[in-house]
Amino acid sequence: MTFLCPSCSAEIQFSSSVALYCVCRYCRSQIFRNEQQVDLLGKQAELPEDVSPVQIFSEGEAFGKKFRVLGKVKMQWAGGTWNEWFLTYSDGTLGWLAEAQGKWILSTEKKEVVFPDLEDIRVGRKFTLDSVAFIYTDKKEATSYGFEGELPFLTVAGEKRFSVDLLSDKSNRFLSFEYSKDERKAFIGKYVTLTELKMTNLKQIEGFSA
Amino acid sequence: MLKPKIFNCPNCGANLQITALGYTTSVACEKCQSVIDTSHPLPQLLEKYEMAMTVTPTLPIGSFGVLKGIRWKIIGFMVRKDVDYPVEWNEYLLFNPYHGFRFLFEMDSHFSLIETLNFNPVPGGGAIPNSFSNEKWGSFKLFNRGRAEVVYVLGEFYWQVKVGEIVDIDDYINPPYMISVEKNDDEVSYSLGEYLNVAEVAEAFKSVPNLSLTTPWKASANAPNPYLSATEIVSIFSVGVAALIFTAIGFAVMKPTTKILDLDLDNSKFASPQGEFVSPSFDIGSGTGNMELKMSSPVANSWLSSDVDFVNEETGQEYKTELGVEYYYGSDSDGGWSEGERNTSDIISSIPAGRYHLEVSAASDMANKSVHLEFYRNGSMALNFILTLLGLSLYPLWVVMRRRSYEVSRWYDSDYSPYHGPGTLSETINNVQSSLESEE
Question: What gap in Å lies between CA B427 and CA B125, rounded to an integer?
């Protein structure tokens, strides 16, 4: 679906039917799509540049399906930054590719989770989900830098949320909870490498080749 | 094409760069060694350092090298030391945006490529087992429990690096692998190291000018033992022995013993003025097979001694040998007895190839000096076989001893050595401490 940016009139395109928000590549306006019209939400600063080889419209393969990268969320915490890449699969399902400290986690949102209270979460304690035992490995407060491309939800710069990571040594699964002001989300996934995802259309970086 | 970000050191103004942009949260200035926080768009001076020491890394920051098929850039360098022992080592931070980070460990010319693990490989939920087994990397033994302190830093890091920071480290080894658990108050991290040959490292970083890496001169925690294990040596030894037996059989089959001469001599043959019998000419070919001269004589309560000269008809060179037999018999109060042999033989192994004849003379107390001579080539190989077998068995013994002594030196500084010898320093200290305490 193609629209005109309500701020600068540049052409803006939504590749995914589930994505409702996007950032104009030219004037950096955040835009909300509602039926056949688009609303201007506000301006956003450019995300800080990083060396991540993944970019909007990078492609790859997982679970026997092709996927395409459509959006990027950048988060900051006391120990640095991380990226969350929004993916759509060839069968229409959604996914996430998180990137931190040179490691990659492929995940999907998990619904109907009975969330523990944030205050009760302690690193090192156990949590069981669908009879798989996880251990809390990390709990931190993070701030959004905003986003690029398109997303199924809105995140604006300065927005805060708590991020909780869990690991299962036995099943090699990764679980994470997000606690924001209004909602709680759970994502389940695993560690991957860009090589095993057979990624294409990656960013060119001086001194290296994909 | 994304290029490294260039910025100026807020302390000394030196030109610095960030390759792992977005990951790098601190940079130690290569000029003034100040540590700069780069987790914000504007780099901030974290710690101004006027270090008394300057360490020049063996492999300079900014160098590229291909290790295990991946091209890495060295972006950070760190010297750490053991808090309790006088031991120091270097760690290089390697980066490739498509493959993440690795560490290159360097101590006493030993190198390891280290990757952080996404899970806890040590079973037992935080306990410190003396050994454990891993499906992928085999059986590990606890090698060292210690504390490591950062003493020197240069370049980029994806965490807030700090000189003086101390972590607890547990190392488990299964050469060439090492699994390490690093703990501080905030987090636990797990890593897997794999030993790298100094030659692999030299090849990887051959583009570094004037790089000189020395061959390690002592054992390291996770260097593979250069000597074969007892199991390996036994299997190689068995293969060797089998090969030897097959070779021996093969030679026997392919080159059967051949008779070159068969002479029946008696007084009539020794009738020449010199008392010598001169044989017809024959050839000795070149080859590895032994030659054997057999002699027999129907001696009965008598003796016979025969001088046999091999005369090379081309050079005139003579090769002499002497063969003798004696045989006595009779009977006494215990019954019949006999002594001596009627047959004898001699291995002839040092005669070069050529055309020869024999000059044979005989002495005896018999009236008729009757001698039977047979000359064979490729005769018995039994002696060679036995000698080779002996030689073969000395080698595995030597290897087994060398291998053990390498393991003893590997574990020499470990508190968990399975080789009981003179106690380690800390054992001695512990013993002294406990004996002092018991006296109080």
Answer: 28
